[in-house]
């Protein structure tokens, strides 16, 4: 399914709150924060010239977040960043002075962090980031996971010392349960989705994601003309669309938001012109995107900065995983998890459809940018789908394949 953005807010300036959250000054603060992280390095930008020639565009670039901060997904940028910001703010309030990031590991700050508990609901990747952030500062973490989260993903979060709480139902059920439990116990909820009255912390999570956009703009020979970004509740799509709108203004690329067909909450929200909750249906293999209710802050941004919305099917997602695992025409291999390659799957699907291609004005001069939002965060599932181990795929990369 495909539709253009026809909402009343389309192409209006970002809400001032969102422009501040995703603007240059905030993004520079994120970069400074990352400079204090021991294992930080910009993630690679991967060029796929063979696939670009095959589909008839000038360039395809993939920002490969499977390498981010040892967590294997872009979420490493958001949850941990928000946790650290919240600890520093609490320290400022308790100590009555400005507390710099450089003091994060001081005994004064760590003593304050030890008295804090952060909590969230997760499909896997966000919870891992929140748990890692809590471990870095010495705070406690309680992570709620729904019944669809694999044991492998639960174990990957638990290794950071988080308390794991299973919740019956879907991701959205776990979000509601996390908010209720956190309020009852006095914990700080660090969610990547927002609801009425709860916007600032999800904004900090999205703010963390601006780092990947700034890195990509520095790594690309030229800015992209078209961007396809996958969406769960909308946070990563909103962060990329919003920051590009601020940085590039009238020269910003054509931006398409991509949903799984079985969990198309942003697509249906765009169709309705207002946030809607969709019915739960058959589970999707795109587990990190299986969300049925959009983030209100993300929608506020996307209603202004997104140009189009589309969906991809199960076969699109698994097909692009296999294509990236078994590249040809000189392209490097990319380890993309079940949700990681969805933006690229949508780009290929859009270019193959003459009507969508024409509507988005894609031609042989177009430069497409996508984000591999996760590597093999569930290695067993990855091997089940591709028939290859993540290590075997990563070993295929030729010298100089990454920019």
UniProtKB/TrEMBL annotation:
PANTHER family associated with the record: DIAMINOPROPIONATE AMMONIA-LYASE, PTHR42937
Record-annotated Tryptophan synthase beta chain-like PALP domain positions: 39-358
Lineage, opening ranks: Bacteria, Pseudomonadati, Pseudomonadota, Alphaproteobacteria, Hyphomicrobiales
Recorded GO MF terms: diaminopropionate ammonia-lyase activity; pyridoxal phosphate binding
The name this protein goes by in its record: Diaminopropionate ammonia-lyase
Keyword Lyase belongs to the record: yes
InterPro entries for the chain: DiNH2opropionate_NH3_lyase, TrpB-like_PALP, TrpB-like_PALP_sf
EC number(s) recorded for this UniProt protein: 4.3.1.15
Names of required cofactors: pyridoxal 5'-phosphate
Keywords for this protein: Lyase, Pyridoxal phosphate
């Amino acid at each position: 399914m495909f539709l253009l953005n026809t909402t009343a807010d389309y192409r209006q300036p970002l809400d001032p709150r969102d422009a501040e959250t995703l603007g240059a000054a905030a993004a520079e603060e994120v970069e400074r924060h990352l400079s204090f992280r021991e294992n930080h390095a910009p993630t690679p930008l991967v060029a796929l010239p063979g696939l670009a020639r095959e589909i008839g565009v000038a360039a395809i670039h993939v920002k490969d977040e499977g390498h981010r901060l040892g967590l294997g997904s872009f979420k490493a940028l958001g949850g941990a960043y928000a946790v650290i910001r919240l600890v520093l703010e609490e320290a400022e309030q308790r100590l009555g002075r400005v507390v710099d990031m450089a003091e994060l590991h001081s005994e004064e700050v760590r003593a304050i962090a030890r008295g804090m508990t952060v909590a969230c609901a997760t499909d896997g990747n966000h919870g891992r980031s929140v748990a890692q952030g809590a471990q870095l500062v010495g705070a406690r973490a309680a992570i709620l996971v729904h019944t669809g989260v694999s044991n492998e993903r639960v174990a990957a979060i638990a290794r950071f010392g988080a308390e794991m709480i299973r919740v019956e139902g879907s991701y959205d059920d776990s979000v509601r349960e996390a908010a209720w439990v956190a309020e009852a116990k006095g914990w700080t909820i660090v969610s990547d989705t927002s609801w009425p009255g709860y916007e600032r912390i999800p904004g900090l999570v999205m703010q963390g994601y601006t780092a990947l956009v700034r890195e990509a703009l520095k790594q690309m020979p030229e800015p992209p003309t078209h961007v396809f970004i996958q969406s769960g509740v909308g946070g990563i799509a909103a962060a990329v669309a919003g920051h590009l709108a601020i940085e590039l203004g009238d020269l910003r690329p054509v931006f398409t938001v991509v949903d799984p067909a079985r969990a198309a909450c942003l697509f249906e929200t765009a169709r309705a012109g207002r946030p809607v909750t969709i019915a739960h249906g058959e589970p999707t293999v795109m587990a990190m995107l299986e969300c049925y209710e959009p983030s209100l802050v993300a929608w506020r941004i996307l209603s202004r900065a997104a140009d189009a919305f589309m969906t991809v099917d199960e076969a699109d997602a698994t097909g692009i995983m296999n294509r990236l695992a078994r590249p040809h025409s000189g392209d490097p291999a990319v380890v993309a998890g079940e949700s990681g390659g969805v933006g690229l799957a949508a780009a290929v699907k859009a270019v193959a459809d003459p009507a969508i291609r024409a509507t988005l004005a894609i031609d042989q001069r177009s430069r497409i940018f996508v984000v591999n939002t996760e590597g093999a965060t569930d290695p067993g599932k990855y091997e089940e789908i591709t028939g290859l181990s993540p290590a075997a795929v990563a070993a295929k990369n030729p010298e100089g394949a990454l920019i």
